[in-house]
Structure prediction request, 225 residues.
Amino acid sequence: MRDRIQAVLRQLAQAPELEARWLHTLSLMEFIGARKISRTVADRHPSLEVLGHLSDETRHAFAFKRLSAEVAGSEITTFLCPEAAGRYFQGLDHELATWATAHTGQPDVYLHYLLTTTAIERRAMVLYPLYKAASRNTSVREELGRVVTEEQSHRRTIEDACVARLTAVGASLDEALALEERLFGAFLAELEPAVERELAALPSPSALAASDVGTPAVRASSSVK
Prediction:
């Protein structure tokens, strides 16, 4: 799956129009994560650890939205496969909660939080470095570096707590990660053809060059840093 992720990221990074919408999609997914935290383990004044995590996810949602506006030239309202992105996140949260409850015998909100966070951040540690390598935009690459550092700062603690709780009830994190792999694969299966269709619909470089003949400046929305 890593090769497929790398390939689609390289494709969408070719066009600022697509990259802006991809950044907006990442912002949406980070926002969904932050909202999920605020409605569950942070529905009342939480621990320092949870509050710090909520703060990070909120900042990431803002950072990606700001970058989408920077790449596009103004704030946008469109995404890349937003329904599929939502299904991935909501499906993961629901399936992990169901799977965990089957092992514990009753709902455990904090374990569900640990599980979803662990699975999402494992995915981020694959997705974000690959995107950083694919993007041609300096601002995007720099921000992705910051996001990865922030994710790593709390990932280990959360994952260790998750594994300890699962071990206590005879469950394996590998089973949970296999659920995530399947659901992300479904999201990727919708993203790949969507990116291909969008790229095919964009004007060719030669057509853009012809339209810029005699124009004193290239359109700002078509440039990258």
Remarks:
- Confidence is low (pLDDT under 50) at residues 206-225.
- The helical segments are 2-12, 16-39, 48-72, 82-104, 109-134, 138-168, 173-201, 205-211.
